[in-house]
Give the backbone structure.
Amino acid sequence: MVRALLFCWIALASFAALAQDGSASKPEGMVLLTVGGLVGKSNRGPFDKAHDSSLAHLKADFKHAFEFDREMLLALPQGMVTATTPELGKEAVFKGPLLREVLADVEAAKVKTRFVASDGYSGYLLPEDIEGSDYILALEVDGRPLGLGQQGPLWLVNTRKDGEGPGIDNRGSHVWGLVYMHVGD
């Protein structure tokens, strides 16, 4: 009897562990964003030089990561930012998931986070930048989805005060063409 109860307990614990490992949803559509580094929740394995050739070009490297498709990003709490950017040259309304919610969703450590565009351009934010601002990962501008070649698929953007801009080291840059985020150094 004790042996049977022990077997049942081990089986239940094993099923619970398997369920927990598989609980992170996986993208069904095209992956728009990969978040690597110090993330507590993942839905894919380690960096694979052959499979992740575009990320290899961007010098990404991770032991595990979290991938998002458009629907997964839309399922997170959304924000709206009205900003004038040099790229658009006029005021525009950006919509997309709040950056702090994206990071919370993957259980990211509260450390320096680097944002990398498809062309290799990168910027970074510190935890206080993220918590103290309305940064979003814009999926659309003025009601239109951002496409590749149009500052998409994602554009890291926030509302800036007059005269406020990125640091000379790209801290706080509005990174467009965003495809990869790395949490930690």
Q: What stands out?
A: The helical segments are 2-21, 53-57, 70-74, 99-105, 127-131.
